Amino acid sequence: MSLQGDTFVSTCRDLHLYSLIQSSQQVETLNIRLSISQKTSSN
């Protein structure tokens, strides 16, 4: 029983970390797009 609980908790933690990584990658791509659009507009 406790083993299943530990597995469930670790799975939730992995999913949370995965979603955090995904969101941070999305923010990075957004920043890159913004910087590119700013460069093109300034040119």
Automatic annotation (TrEMBL):
Superkingdom field: Bacteria
Protein name in UniProt: Uncharacterized protein
